[in-house]
Fold this protein.
Amino acid sequence: MKEAIAILTGGGPAPGMNTVVGSVAKTFLKNGYRVIGLHEGYTGLFVKNPRTVDLDFPLADDIFNRGGSYLKMSRFKPTDANFENDFNLDFFVNNNVKLLVTVGGDDTASTANRIAKFLQSKNYPVANIHVPKTIDNDLPLPPGSPTFGFQSAQNEGAHIARTIYEDARTSENWFVIAAMGRSAGHLAFGIGSAGHAPMIIIPEMFDKSEITVDKIVSLVVSAIIKRKIMGLNYGTAVISEGVFHSLSTEEVEKAGITFTYDAHGHPELGKISKAQVFNTLVENRLIELGFKPRIRPVEIGYEVRCQTPIAFDLVYCTSLGMGVYKLFSEGKTGCMVYVNPEGAVSPLYLHDLQDPQTGKIPPRLVDMQSDQIRSVIDNIMAYITPADYEAAKAYVPNPEAYDFRKILNW
């Protein structure tokens, strides 16, 4: 029987999923392997009759430059009982599978790590290589290396945000823009920076202060007042959805938000409009202060996940797909494929990245001390400083309460 590999996609989509799958398939097919695609993520490894598809060359060639994911995705998280009772070893034996390729983000990587350990404990000769994906850019790759999908999502998100900024300028409105990013603010900060947003709020900014609803609202109001002092009655505020993830239960309840949670214990942020929530809170504050607010919500999330990948991700994901074969042919397993900015392929071992207590892969956060981040905060964003207090008194009686650095305790 011909030797085979299996490939699955987990979590949510990102631009470049099909590029990775298509490139893996083309490379392994060229080298004599059968390529089996597993639908529904990890679900297929824990049922007797998984949904599968043979990925031949015409199919791989048809999908490699498309957005979305040809292989249906799932956030299924196997329990310890699933591993002991339901793991489908017969799938590997009956199809002569020598390699399992997993494509996904931090949760998919963590589960891939568990699978690698499980197969090793069973002395089962199946290699496992993970391809890191997330538009959040929060997997702990070496500096300068984005997760695939991030650049395409950032590009489209910035396009939307720039259009909204033009609307704000034309209509003299304000817009509250919420951007995806569960644990880190890379996407929101990139979108806000590209659009010269007067205010960008990400969870990492609260490195010296607890995140509260009041502080988030005050930061947006600070930008609105500063722009008024500058003679500008328009602007945008970009807020990372990750601030919701970091709010305490008490703060979430104070904002009137009710979450459901996914299998990994994360709040299902996609089920509510974060922009609408914060827009309402900011609008209420402005009314209390005597303003006549013209402020609107805009959500940037699902709009950027399944778009056609830009050239950067087409090239990057092709390299990652071919890199899987290189690592496999070198006998590597239990690792992520890593392609550095110069194009060199090497393994990143999951056990070196995981938290020793939880076994999970920790997120890569925005470095608030970097020159790039600080320069945007210092030179592009707009907010109240002590030098503005006198002018700000025309709008609020207590301008120090809207001082950007005092709010953040910087």
